[in-house]
Write a structure and sequence with these properties.
With 577 residues, the protein is an all-alpha fold. It folds into 3 domains: 2-124 and 291-314; 126-265, Four Helix Bundle (Hemerythrin (Met), subunit A), CATH 1.20.120; 367-422 and 473-576, Methyl-accepting chemotaxis protein (Helix Hairpins, Orthogonal Bundle). Helix content is 88%, strand content 0%. The protein contains 11 helices and no strands. Helix 5 (163-188) packs antiparallel against helix 6 and helix 9 (367-443) runs parallel beside helix 11. The radius of gyration is 68 Å and the shape is elongated. The two termini are 108 Å apart.
């Protein structure tokens, strides 16, 4: 009892230690997963802060791919920042602990500024791209204008045009160069961008007026129209090229303020990204320090593990002692059982030789139930043997009676055959006599009286034959009744055989149960198993004998039925004869 109490206490300590160990492990593992998520997000924020600054600068310069990259970086930063500041419900990640709230607020402040400037750049995407597209087209068109004006200058010089016209054409080429420079300054977003935009508008307007004056002439400007046809054709081509430039002036002047704002936002992003990098680094370091401070929980886990291991060792020692004690008790019990088995074998030794008068002693040992079953089986065997003997006597008597009936039937059949043969001979003789009478009547009427006498005698013979036939019919009917009674007796024999067969089946089942009881007894029941096998074989032989008797009875019934049918047919023939 004390051992069971000690074992139970150790099991309780073991279970509690394991539960606490797993709980501590789950807590440490969960917090470690949280820390890894926090640190991973914080590290990505550091990278994304620099990615946003780089993409913002490139987007401000008109790089189309930079806008998509900037938008992706902004969304990624915003999502990861949401995981840190608010948590992620999909994976059960809570927000960053309050102990790091100062670092979180610092990052939050810079991120709001960075996000506002990023949204401003993204909202101006179409404007920036369109303006840079116009500038790119101008960069291709203006050099063509310069080339065309240089050709105009050459034509004017060759044609001997006035020096004033040649000078105006040369100034137009320089003015085109200045227009292109102003556009580049506008796109650069420098401090002179506003002045460059104004200069671009004035220079483009002046270029258009001078071009128009060279084609049509302008007294106010002091410019005469060019007379050379080839030069005029060149000026017409220049006018067509300049239509795009003049059409872009308003667009550049209208959208340049928005472009300047994009440049300012990009510069602001670049400056804030540096401080944001420092603050996200501080947040990442704080998260790392918090993860490193969780060493105490690991020590607790080791202590709980050691306690659980010690409990297992103590439980093992207690169980070994308990097992040794139980083995000793089992050995003593086996010795008692062996003695009981030997005693039971001695008592039922004569049963194997066929002695059904033996009786096993019923004790309190485990062999008591076996002994009781053996005694019951012996009683059933005694009753079964008595029943078999009685049934055998009845079967023998029924067989003798059947044999006598069959012999009587054979004698009656033989006598009937003899009488039928005599009747047939008399009928044949009568037929011969009738033939002779017919022959003699035809030959001579003298012998008619003798023929009549002979006919009268023949009539008497016929009457006697009919009387004999009636007697034969009655005998046949009587014989038929006896044969039917013989069939009914055979049916009773069949019922007796069925009873014997049922007794044999019950004997077989009883022998099988006895064999099962003997097998349950093990080595102690081998002697009784031999007796059970002998009883089972005796039951099987009885069953086989009853089946043979049953087959013989069926044969007799078949023969008697055929004899009855034959006699009835004979009676019918006799009646018809």
């Amino acid at each position: 009892m004390r051992s069971n109490t000690l074992t139970t206490g150790l099991f309780v300590v073991l279970v509690v230690s394991i539960v606490l160990l797993f709980a501590n492990f789950a807590y440490v593992n969960t917090q470690s997963d949280y820390d890894n998520e926090y640190i991973a997000h914080a590290g990505e924020l550091r990278v994304l802060s620099q990615q946003i600054a780089k993409d913002a600068v490139e987007a401000a310069t008109g790089t189309q791919e930079a806008f998509a990259s900037l938008k992706q970086a902004r969304n990624d930063f915003n999502q990861r920042w949401g995981y840190l500041s608010q948590g992620n419900e999909s994976i059960g990640l809570p927000a960053v602990p309050e102990s790091l709230r100062t670092e979180v607020n610092a990052v939050e402040q810079d991120w709001n500024t960075l996000r506002r400037d990023t949204d401003a750049i993204l909202s101006s995407e179409q404007t920036v791209l369109s303006l840079h597209q116009v500038a790119s087209t101008l960069a291709e068109t203006i050099p063509q204008l310069q080339v065309e004006y240089e050709e105009v200058v050459d034509i004017l010089l060759e044609s001997g045009a006035p020096a004033a016209q040649v000078s105006v054409a040369q100034r137009q080429s320089l003015l085109a160069e200045r227009i292109l420079g102003s556009v580049n300054k506008v796109l650069s977003g420098d401090q002179d961008s506003v002045q460059a935009a104004d200069m671009f508008g004035r220079d483009a307007s002046l270029f258009g007026r001078v071009l128009n004056a060279m084609i049509e002439g302008n007294v106010a400007m002091g410019i005469t129209a060019v007379a050379d046809e080839e030069a005029r054709d060149r000026l017409s081509e220049i006018a067509e090229l300049f239509q795009f430039v003049s059409g872009s002036v308003d667009e550049i002047l209208e959208t340049s303020p928005e472009l300047f704002q994009v440049r300012e936002s990009a510069n602001s992003i670049f400056e804030v990204s540096q401080t944001l990098l420092d603050k996200t680094s501080a947040l990442s370091q704080g998260l790392q320090n918090r993860a490193d401070a969780r060493y105490l929980n690991t020590i607790v886990g080791y202590v709980l593990g050691a306690l659980a291991l010690a409990s297992i060792i103590l439980i093992g020692l207690v169980m070994v002692q308990e097992t040794r004690r139980r083995l000793s008790e089992t050995a003593e019990k086996n010795e008692r059982n062996q003695a009981a088995i030997l005693r039971l074998l001695d008592e039922i030794g004569d049963l194997a030789d066929g002695d059904l008068t033996v009786a096993a002693t019923v004790t309190e040992d485990f062999t008591g139930a076996i002994a009781d079953s053996i005694n019951y089986s012996i009683d059933q065997l005694r009753e079964l043997v008595a029943t078999i003997n009685q049934t055998a006597v009845q079967v023998s008597g029924a067989a003798q009676e059947t044999q006598a009936t069959a012999m009587h039937l054979a004698e009656a059949s033989e006598h009937q055959a003899q009488e039928i043969a005599g009747a047939s001979a008399a009928i044949n003789e009568m037929a011969v006599s009738i033939d002779q009478v017919s022959a003699n009547a035809a030959e001579s009427s003298a012998v008619a009286e003798r023929s009549v006498a002979i006919a009268n005698k023949g009539n008497e013979v016929v009457h006697n034959t009919i009387t004999g036939m009636d007697n034969i019919r009655e005998q046949i009917q009587d014989t038929s009744k006896r044969i039917k009674r013989l069939g009914e007796s055979s049916q009773e024999i069949g019922d007796i055989v069925s009873l014997i067969n049922d007794i044999a089946d019950q004997t077989n089942i009883l022998a099988l149960n006895a064999a099962i009881q003997a097998s349950m007894a093990g080595d102690a029941g081998r002697g009784f198993a031999v007796v059970a096998d002998e009883v089972q074989r005796l039951a099987e032989r009885s069953s086989a004998a009853t089946k043979q008797i049953e087959a013989l009875v069926k044969t007799i019934q078949t023969d008697t039925n055929e004899a009855v049918i034959s006699m009835e047919q004979t009676t019918s023939e006799v009646v018809r004869g």
